Amino acid sequence: MGHMAGSRIMIPAIQWGLRLVLGGVFVYAGVVKIYDPAGFLADIESYRLLPYFAAVATALYLPWLEVVAGAALWIRRAYRGSLAILLVLTFLFGVFITSAWIRGLDISCGCFGVTDTSEANYPWLLTRDVLILLGLACLVWFEQVTGRRMSNG
Amino acid sequence: MQDTTTINTFFTERARILREILFLLSLPLLLAAGSALLHPSAPSWSQDALAEGEVDLEIIDRWEEDFLWVDARSREEYEEAHIPGALLLNEDAWDDLLFDFFDRWHPGKKVVVYCGSSGCRASHQVAERLRDETGDDTIQVLQGGWDTWREAES
Question: ipTM of the assembly?
Answer without folding.
Answer: 0.86
